[in-house]
Write a structure and sequence with these properties.
170 residues, alpha+beta, Aminopeptidase, seven-stranded mixed beta sheet, 5 helices, 7 strands, 28% strand
């Protein structure tokens, strides 16, 4: 069974800033694809606020950090996904993703995760693909179980609480 065809569309610093400010109209004007109201919802806006500060401090992260999940067939944004930053000194990249609640249970998270894995595999400097998941996030745990990830430990995240660390060699 094949899933939806998606791309991670990275956004400009201008579009990130507009999303962080909750200005969907300005963000859409600065984006290569039309954006959706969920991206400025309480559930999603914190990501943009964090990422806009991150890319101001570390411009090299811009092409790696959270973008939008674009459904090529339907031509609509269905969520957000990307890496936490460019590969670190050991060649590790960590993924993050979230699907708009109206679009869930359609294979978008899996498609986005596979697209990010393809990107990591295409980058010679990347050696480790990491995902961290709350032990209570049943949907993401099920997704991680579909790929050959190895559980390598736990960490405390100030925003998300306890997370299990999963890694996959690239």
């Amino acid at each position: 069974m094949s899933g939806p065809q998606v791309r991670i569309v990275h956004l400009s610093a201008e579009a990130l800033g507009a999303l962080a400010a909750g200005d969907l109209e300005a963000a859409s004007a600065a984006s290569p694809v039309p954006l959706t109201p969920w991206l400025v919802s309480d559930e999603a806006i914190g990501t943009w606020r964090y990422r806009v500060r991150q890319v101001a401090d570390t411009p090299a992260d811009l092409g790696w950090v959270t973008g939008v999940i674009w459904d090529d067939e339907r031509e609509v944004v269905v969520g957000k996904a990307g890496f936490h930053g460019a590969p670190d000194a050991s060649g590790m990249v960590e993924v993050g993703y979230a699907v708009d609640p109206a679009e869930r249970r359609r294979g978008y998270a899996r498609a986005a995760l596979l697209a990010m894995l393809d990107r990591a595999r295409a980058e010679p400097s990347v050696r480790t693909f990491r995902a961290t998941v709350s032990p209570t996030n049943t949907a993401s745990l099920g997704l991680i179980a579909q790929l050959p990830f190895a559980e390598v430990g736990e960490q405390w995240d100030d925003e998300d609480g306890l997370e299990t660390i999963y890694e996959l060699p690239v």
